[in-house]
UniProtKB/TrEMBL annotation:
<feature type="domain" description="Amidase">
    <location>
        <begin position="2"/>
        <end position="214"/>
    </location>
</feature>
<protein>
    <submittedName>
        <fullName>Biuret hydrolase</fullName>
        <ecNumber>3.5.1.84</ecNumber>
    </submittedName>
</protein>
<dbReference type="InterPro" id="IPR023631">
    <property type="entry name" value="Amidase_dom"/>
</dbReference>
<dbReference type="Pfam" id="PF01425">
    <property type="entry name" value="Amidase"/>
</dbReference>
<dbReference type="InterPro" id="IPR000120">
    <property type="entry name" value="Amidase"/>
</dbReference>
<dbReference type="InterPro" id="IPR036928">
    <property type="entry name" value="AS_sf"/>
</dbReference>
<keyword id="KW-0378">Hydrolase</keyword>
<dbReference type="GO" id="GO:0018750">
    <property type="term" value="F:biuret amidohydrolase activity"/>
</dbReference>
């Protein structure tokens, strides 16, 4: 989906680009970095192994780092929680019982966050965005795990990360939230290990407005069989 929406005054007025015509270019000639620091911590080894497999397939060895990524994730969590609360505030007041309890609690918490915290998070977001822009002056795309573990099963509420049991909903976005909240284009490709019935996602992150780059890399990985999307078979 591309192009400006006449019904959304806040969207950018960017023209439609024929990205499909560029996919055959593959990843050749692109400067590809591998996210280190925060993105190489706080996860299970299987997540890092998936990212490493993608990096090796692309010949990527350069380690790059998004500064203050942990703080970025916290700011993203705060902003999205308050925005969600603002969107649903009237329904929370009049139809609270109709919400999933976990969702309702999160939205109600967002409605009570001080405005000063939100303002500080928004200031940090702009700083982090500038830092990301500087990083992409040195590389064209960055690889990073998409989740700290293999894809959870439907209805799964808990997961174990680095020996610690935690809630799936609150922590599955450990690696995606710092990126998505500054609007960078991302393609997450599913990577499968031999004998496993569920995949692990690896993010291909690009600079602003360069969807063509991340899609080229994703297409290249699909062409060589590193990324694939077979039907998941759950063990009974």
């Amino acid at each position: 989906m591309q192009g400006p929406d006449a019904d959304d005054p806040g969207c950018a007025q960017k023209p439609v680009e024929n990205v499909s015509a560029l996919l055959d270019r593959g990843a050749e000639g692109l400067r590809i970095g591998v996210a280190g620091g925060y993105f190489a911590e706080n996860g299970n080894q299987e997540a890092f192994a998936a990212a490493d497999r993608v990096a090796k397939a692309l010949g990527a060895t350069r380690i790059v780092e998004f500064p203050e990524a942990k703080r970025a994730r916290a700011a993203a969590f705060l902003i999205t929680t308050t925005e969600g609360a603002a969107l649903h505030l009237d329904r929370l007041r009049t139809r609270a019982a109709e919400f999933d309890p976990a969702v309702r609690d999160r939205l109600m918490a967002g409605a009570m966050i001080p405005a000063a915290w939100v303002a500080k998070a928004q200031k940090f977001r702009r700083w982090f965005q500038r830092e990301a822009e500087a990083l992409f002056e040195t590389v064209d795309v960055v690889l990073a795990p998409a989740t700290p573990c293999r894809a959870p099963k439907l209805g799964q509420s808990q997961m174990t990360i680095a020996g610690t049991t935690m809630a799936v909903r609150a922590h599955l976005g450990l690696y995606t939230q710092p990126i998505s909240f500054i609007g960078l284009p991302v393609v997450t490709v599913p990577v499968w290990s031999d004998g496993e019935c569920l995949p692990i996602g690896v993010q291909i992150i690009g600079p602003a407005w360069r969807e063509d780059l991340v899609m080229r890399v994703a297409a290249a990985l699909e062409a060589i069989g590193v990324a694939k999307a077979p039907v998941a078979m759950l063990r009974t």
